[in-house]
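Render Serine acetyltransferase in 3D.
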Amino acid sequence: MAETRTNIAEVDPVWSRIRDEAKQAVIDEPLLGGLVHSSILHHATLERTLAYRVSLKLASGEMSEQILREIADEAYSAEPKLGQAARADIVAVYERDPACHRFVQPLLYFKGFQAVQAYRVGHWLWHQGRHDLAYFIQMRVSEVFGVDIHPAAVVGQGIMIDHAHSIVIGETAVVGDNVSMLHSVTLGGTGKEEQKRHPTIESGVLIGAGAEVLGNITVGHCSKVAAGSVVLKDVPPKSTVAGVPAKIVGEAGCDQPSVMMDQLLNGDS
């Protein structure tokens, strides 16, 4: 048994740590034993846990947990990148959110993480041509988590959405890897054009609370969008923009704004 345990830790350290933390959580708070066992310890892989959590959260009188779990299991089995992205997201939340002290927290409690994982299942369905099911997932994610991500939007890995209330990401939006955003962020359009009409957020960007990035524009890699800003024009890489409409107010101030999570403008103290 010890040898098997070591092998799991070597092959999948994120899942191994989640299981260790789950076992400790049951010891620390026995009243959560049923939740922790059904959500984590009863499953052999992180992918099975994710399928269970997604289906449990999104189930309703319109579609049962069993059907949703079959859909999610199919997605995770067919596309290994979904599980890889989830692992990167967990690590991102742990590293960037000072309120996150264990890997198990996003999986059990953080709606930003859970909403993104449910979106990823819907995105997989979209690319299978199963658009109506993808729209159903989008609807339920919006109803349950207050996060509205179109299933056609492209979202990278290592994503951290803090608090995650009132997030909107439009159909043609593209979000790169290692992006962080806070609540009430909108990646929206400016009209009814049919083609690319939503922003591209390159890797390493930090978007502050309440910011709106609108239209077919690009926020360059490792840039910072200040809270409450309305961005209507391209943002050069490694820049900080602020205001309504947003203007460049300086450099980003660090190599990885999305990781440092420093939301002060240059010169602030």
